[in-house]
Amino acid sequence: xxxxxxxxxxxxxxxxxxxxxxxxxxxxxxxxxxxxxxxxxxxxxxxxxxxxxxxxxxxxxxxxxxxxxxxxxxxxxxxxxxxxxxxxxxxxxxxxxxxxxxxxxxxxxxxxxxxxxxxxxxxxxxxxxxxxxxxxxxxxxxxxxxxxxxxxxxxxxxxxxxxxxxxxxxxxxxxxxxxxxxxxxxxxxxxxxxxxxxxxxxxxxxxxxxxxxxxxxxxxxxxxxxxxxxxxxxxxxxxxxxxxxxxxxxxxxxxxxxxxxxxxxxxxxxxxxxxxxxxxxxxxxxxxxxxxxxxxxxxxxxxxxxxxxxxxxxxxxxxxxxxxxxxxxxxxxxxxxxxxxxxxxxxxxxxxxxxxxxxxxxxxxxxxxxxxxxxxxxxxxxxxxxxxxxxxxxxxxxxxxxxxxxxxxxxxxxxxxxxxxxxxxxxxxxxxxxxxxxxxxxxxxxxxxxxxxxxxxxxxxxxxxxxxx
Length: 469
What we know:
Blueprint lengths: L1 H42 L5 E3 L1 H11 L1 H21 L5 E11 L2 H10 L17 E15 L3 H67 L5 H36 L7 E3 L15 H11 L1 H21 L5 E10 L11 E10 L7 H67 L5 H35 L5
Helix pairs in contact: 2-5, 3-5, 5-6, 5-8, 5-10, 7-9, 8-9, 9-10
């Protein structure tokens, strides 16, 4: 009998455990299947894209998260204005209350409010017993005067929208600069890679010829070793330029807001990039920057906002007046009856006589905030003046370097041509050839760097004067 009971108990346990295990396995299998279905989605490669400079800028303006954040801040500022303007509208509230009491004063008030007072109501006024009161009502309130605080709140909110717009313009201006410079950096890396690859071809050809001459006994072992050293240097330059290409593409992808699995290519310009140039004097460019830069305008708006907030705090010293109206009914039972309704209309005026110095300290804090943003405005102005000056000087330097490097490229090309002719005639050593090849490569690299440095400096100057606000 005991065995039978144990068997029954075991079977009962199995009948409980087995379904649980089956459900667990099904759940695990479903999770595994779900993972197998969803996992490849995150790794799925997107269709490749290609960008010219203009297309890259347009894509960045549409997808860069920094610009989207700035746009959301504008929406937040607009909502804040709506909140501030709501103070000028009446506030209407519906509510219902229930009371149950034997307090003589409250019970007497309930009797009067419920329109149930009669001669018998005061016979036992000290011991009225329990009574209940249901009161549904609608309450309306309108602010008549708040020391000008509502007005200054609305003005500060309006200025907040303007400040957010200027901040968006600032991000817009900086984003175009960043995309443009990254694009030029990518092109410069491509040019540097091309120079390195051409150098590899030239050095490899000369190395092979020198090895043949060495085997024939007409060249020195040191010539072969010198060319091998130069070959390693050119290969190192090619590796660094290839890495620069990938780094610049990574920077562009980040600015464009592209996901990591998005393949894309950067298209070279269809025509030769024009040489940058200075279009105006420094004083005129600085005046334009101080007039157009959105950062200065945003800082000025912040000063005005703080001025209104100071007036808001000072308004706490003034009286406040509110009009109110209440319509409802009092009854011992839920429901509504027009015979038991009552209306209350009035005006309430209040004035803070002493707040424990809270108002005074809030005014002091607002004054310090106002002084802070005024200094921030001055700091912004000084920073922009410095930015314009640096960009102007860098563009001047880059243009001067560009003129020098272009002349050096022409001289280096001619020198290498003459050395090659002398080399074939056996009049110069391989050391002289290597020196000429190095000079040519360096001149080309310097010219490329100077050209793109000038383009980048021109871009930075455009940003500094707020050209893309």
